[in-house]
Amino acid sequence: MGVQGLWGYADQRPEFFRDVKLMNTKIIIDGNNFYFKFYHNSCLDERHGGDYDLYAEALKRFFQTLSSCNIQPYVVLDGCCNHTDQKLETTKLRAEGHIKSAHDLSMGHKGRLLPLLSRNVFIQVLSKLGVPLVQCLLEADTEIAALANQWNCPVLSTDTDFFIFDLKGGFCPLTQFRWESASQGHIPARCYFIENFCAHFNGMNKDLLPLFAVIHGNDYSDMKMMYRFVRHVASSSHTSAYRGKKQAIIHSLLTWLSPLHNLKVAMENVLNVLPVSDRGVAQEYLSSQMQVYKIPERNLSGFFTSGASTTDDIQLRSLVLHWALGALEKAQLPKTVVDLLVLQRVFLIPQVENSERPNAHTCALPIRRAFYGMILNGRRHSSTSGPGGDGVEAAPCVVEEYGREKRNLTMSRVEATPPHSAKGVSLEQIEKLPLARRLQMFLEILGVSSSTVEEVPRHLIFPVYVTHFWLIHSDPRPSLQHLQAILVGIAEGFTAALWCTPSSGG
User: Fold this and answer.
1) CA distance 9 to 15
2) Helix crossing, 227-234 with 263-273: angle to 10°?
3) pTM (2 decimals)?
4) What is the pLDDT of residues 253-292, one digit of tens each?
5) Are the beta carbons of 323 and 84 closer than 8 angstroms?
6) Strands of the sheet with 71-77, listed across from one edge
């Protein structure tokens, strides 16, 4: 989520912020925003698959600095994009932007693209350091705001939606959080407070900010809906001092709204600008979109203190098995599982590669097809069933998969097909199966005969057979040098693991 252009506008106005010395406090970290921004702020390589070692070290230094100032972080990660599909177009636009960045980086130009395993590295570091972490089933912004207000502590992020939420403990942008300058047991920072923002606009009613965000445009907004109104305001004298600047519309909208006493009056004034025939639809649209900024009474404190579930949404809980729900909330399962269960849709993460070649994810299509099948095992397309239960077997589930074709975002429909050894086995049953049966499923997905398992040391089964799969399915075929590089990497990894393992003698 984010209000378009608001960061550039607010960052130029120090009166919106207060200088603070953070110590002896909790802090809620917007996980998705943080691991993306922190990687780029650390000036790490983006072209060659990621500097994960350096990333992990930088993360350790950050959280150790928090600890030295007695700041207790709580990290909240997003889950599924949005189960109502309101944000699909925004997600597509971002995916197209990532494809462009990947291509630009591959050509030696500037670009920003998070390496593929950055999220995994981030979660692993948090786990090793014992940093409290939760992965929500849906987007996390309102959950972050509710938890921060419950504990009266600041939020750490660069998401501009936190300029709109009424946060008791303030919103601390990561760019203003000078953790590397920590001294004398505190971290110098600048925190935004909604009271400062509204005071700048002559005591503007803070309840009007969600209306402003929806009118101006956020990740959920349909800009066509409010175009007439925005054009009307932009043509007023409020933009004269900002003409030609990106922030002109923001300033004019805020100035226009500021003298209006409450939300009801503001809504009436907005609707009066529109044709009578459009007012009903516009009112319903604005009212529904502003709910995005409604902070729920229920919050995540119960999860961190007693392990309570993150959601009481009955429909959502019905889609996710109890054991899987716990694993998802602890980030032990990827959020892709939620996307599959709720939306049956997946966005493949672009990588820096030759844009004229098929994307690297093509190689793993058989694995993904089996993975989708195991997650969605037992579900069928109801639309293909015979009417009245005539005995016609329905087609298997199909997953919408968005990926790169040359430099374009394309969608393909992938049939969710579990391995033969997993047919008839529900997701809930898989974890209860004997290890030998689960290993059989794994080998079948990789196209390997179980009779060859005895020839490979147990601790090498996974890397050996995944490498075997890669050699067979990769196009173009890897060279000897590629294979040697993989083998050296495996050997170095196991050597490092052995050095880090305490000896039996103590």
Assistant:
1) 12
2) 90
3) 0.89
4) 999 999 998 999 999 999 998 889 888 988 998 998 899 8
5) no
6) 17-22, 187-192, 171-173, 155-157, 25-30, 71-77, 133-135
